[in-house]
Amino acid sequence: MPRSRLHTATIRGRMRSDPGLLVLIGLVVALTVAVTTAVEPLGERTADRAIAATVRDAGSRGDVVATAPRDYGDPTGTKRQPRSDVELRQDAEYAHYVLPRRLKAVLRPGVATLTTPSLHLLDNGPGRYLRLVYVDTPQGPPRVTYSSGGAPQAGVGPSRASLTVHPDAGPWPVQVALSQAAASAFGLAPGDRLPAEDDQHRPVSIVVSGVFVPDDADAAAWQVSSQLLHPSVGVSDGLRSTAAAALVSAASLPDLRVGVPADDLTYRVIFTPQPSQVRWRDSRALEREIGSLQSSGRSSHGDITWDSLLTRVLEDGRAQIASARGQAQVLLVGLLGCALLVLVLAAQLLVRRRGASVTLARERGATLLGVALELLVEALIVAVSGALVGLAATWLVVGDVDWVWSVPVLIVAVSAAPVLGAVAAARATSARRAPANRSARRAATRTRQLQRVALEVAVFAAAVLSLAALRQRGVGDLAAASAVLWWTVAGTVVVVRLMPPAVRLMLRNARRSTGDVRFLSAARLAEAGARALPLLVVSVAVAQLTVGVVLASTEQEGQSAGALLAVGGDARLTVPANPGVVDTARAIARSPAVRAAVPALVADDVQASSRRSAEPVRLVVVDAAAYGRLLAASLLPDAPQLARLRAREGDRVPALLLGDDTALRDGLVVHWEDASVPLEVVGPAPRVDASLGPVVVVDAGAFADAGAVAEPNTVWAVGPGASSAVTAAAGTSGSVTTYAEVLRARRDAPLSSGLVRLAVVTAALLLLFALVGVALAAAVEAPARRESLGRLRALGLPDGDLRQVLVGEMLTPVLVATLAGFTLGIAGAFAIFGSLSLEQITGQTGSPGLVVPWWLVLVLAAAVGGVLVLARVEWRHLGRRALAELLRS
């Protein structure tokens, strides 16, 4: 009766006979498990950092704002409320109380504000606007130091704190404090009285009590209104205007509520998110809770209305994370597929070396199950040992592990050798004989061919379906992420199909040659050069390595191009508009290592209209010729249409327009200060400072000839010394943005830096797996090759020719597989990169161009070097065999 019990002595003996191959299998398992178990924990941490960075960069767009219903006042009079600050703080606490649990955990305690609209000051001409703002944080009012005057005080004493102000009593005075910058912008001092009016021309009386300097300009209280510390000067409806905000204290708050019409007051509680508390996995739940608050509106929560753009911020962050995770899946699936193929190839070599013992055991009565179990125990020991090493490494480095991606590695590492061993034992001891009938043999051959064709068709079907999934859904699931892997396998199947005819053609041509080397190399290749699995391992490894390198290089280059476009050059200086900016630009241009510097006016939200449309645009007024020279001196995209801005015809000023709204092109007019300038669109505009909205570019001279005065507020500079020159010229009033800083910020962002690290790790492992595949492929054919070369040596073939035959036989399949991997990898990158949303990571306004680095040829050099080393080792092994032994064999 056949025996199926395990023979431990046989297992120990087999493991001692091939320790190097077993260690190699364990190393492949350990490395793959270490990477795959670390990806998910590190990916989630990276996603959390990315969503936190998105919320942090969003600034006030991420605030959750609770607005109390408007009070339209009592027409018979308004009673002064001396405890107004306490009432508003209680309302803020109630608004915080009604927040949903998960949302409350990520928001800071609310900042209560009571604000007026911009009040028109009537003291010194038009264009002067002041907003009154009361701010109360959980830590109290904002801390300030008064440089002159003092804090706003109540307009009445304690005995009259609750008086009623009648509508016909005239405007009630409200004391306020101004920042130093606001007081300078308006030319005001403590004690000044300011008559003002609201949009409905109702009077308001304002008294300046003091001028302050903030103790901490970065405190949350000042984020309520940027105009509290920084007044703005701009153009509104063609008129130059100055706008600022004044601070109301708790003492003067009751006067604000009676001195300003009740329907002008807006009470809000602003909740600022804590970026470090926002988690990627909780982002959808946060969106739902915010949506629930907004939809509840006046149906609950004391008639509080809620508003927030945090949902859009979270959506944008999640879109970037989804893109990055999809790209990581592409890299990870490629690495996993290559590792599985390496394990199968190693198992095939292991079974070949176990062939004699497995066949002998089978002939002595061992069942196929028993043979498989013995090999299973051996494979299990090796796989579990490697997996434990990989898990321990991940746990020590990362502190957490995830098993999902490692399961296929363990399954293949454990099952490949037992399955292949049982099949080999069954074939070696099979009683089935070849049929004597020719038609039966042909039928058997056709059956085998049909089986192979069916397998190939299945591979191509999987490739087509995976690419269709990628095109339809983008990256995000395994079916789409495996598109490159399946197409690489399909391409390698084509190469395997084409190899035998190519080798036969080479052999036919070699027969007519006078030398022996070509013929003998071709003969050996015809016998063993087109084996599918070794070619597949090397081809897949090189293809996936190529995709990873191209992905990392494309993102790096895209970030560089995006940063350069966002800055507008190597450095950008932004200052208040004034004529002196032209002299500043000339001084920067004369600085060492500065190739060009151009002044320009860059104004956002400038009203533009046409016969069919009206919308705000970014207006750029620049010397077209100088700007063209700056673009030519840098890596910025060229704009040849700039030359058309100098050729003015008729009353319209030539302009370049960038944007999707074609309705603006028909009769375009921009409204600047007190002039309306008609424009003639003559071409597309460059994307100035990476603008996403419509951009209008006009020449400064032509704009001035049309009667519009546009003083520059921006200087772009290019050249190695641009950053230092612009920084030196900035002074205290200018803001400097450099290309190096923007690029560093983009590359240090969590998603982009995490993807680059993953691409580097996977590329290194794939290069290692490619070399392991070359070594395993050489080892699989080593016995037959040594026998053939030994015969040739015994027949008297010179050593030099023998070396060439050896190198030719080993190198040709590797070259074919490597070149096929390069081709398939680059083709796969071109096919899938349009679906990876790389612009989400690079920060560009469009998809980046594919970058294939030249140093990828080093992979080919590494493969060739590996083959030459293996050929030298085999030659030494062949040289150690005595000629007499070869003759007897």
Automatic annotation (TrEMBL):
<dbReference type="InterPro" id="IPR003838">
    <property type="entry name" value="ABC3_permease_C"/>
</dbReference>
<comment type="similarity">
    <text>Belongs to the ABC-4 integral membrane protein family.</text>
</comment>
<dbReference type="InterPro" id="IPR050250">
    <property type="entry name" value="Macrolide_Exporter_MacB"/>
</dbReference>
<feature type="region of interest" description="Disordered">
    <location>
        <begin position="64"/>
        <end position="85"/>
    </location>
</feature>
<keyword id="KW-1133">Transmembrane helix</keyword>
<feature type="transmembrane region" description="Helical">
    <location>
        <begin position="403"/>
        <end position="429"/>
    </location>
</feature>
<keyword id="KW-0812">Transmembrane</keyword>
<feature type="transmembrane region" description="Helical">
    <location>
        <begin position="484"/>
        <end position="507"/>
    </location>
</feature>
<keyword id="KW-1003">Cell membrane</keyword>
<feature type="transmembrane region" description="Helical">
    <location>
        <begin position="528"/>
        <end position="551"/>
    </location>
</feature>
<feature type="transmembrane region" description="Helical">
    <location>
        <begin position="330"/>
        <end position="351"/>
    </location>
</feature>
<feature type="transmembrane region" description="Helical">
    <location>
        <begin position="758"/>
        <end position="784"/>
    </location>
</feature>
<feature type="transmembrane region" description="Helical">
    <location>
        <begin position="805"/>
        <end position="832"/>
    </location>
</feature>
<dbReference type="Pfam" id="PF02687">
    <property type="entry name" value="FtsX"/>
</dbReference>
<keyword id="KW-0472">Membrane</keyword>
<feature type="domain" description="ABC3 transporter permease C-terminal">
    <location>
        <begin position="761"/>
        <end position="871"/>
    </location>
</feature>
<protein>
    <recommendedName>
        <fullName>ABC3 transporter permease C-terminal domain-containing protein</fullName>
    </recommendedName>
</protein>
<feature type="transmembrane region" description="Helical">
    <location>
        <begin position="450"/>
        <end position="472"/>
    </location>
</feature>
<feature type="transmembrane region" description="Helical">
    <location>
        <begin position="372"/>
        <end position="397"/>
    </location>
</feature>
<feature type="transmembrane region" description="Helical">
    <location>
        <begin position="852"/>
        <end position="871"/>
    </location>
</feature>
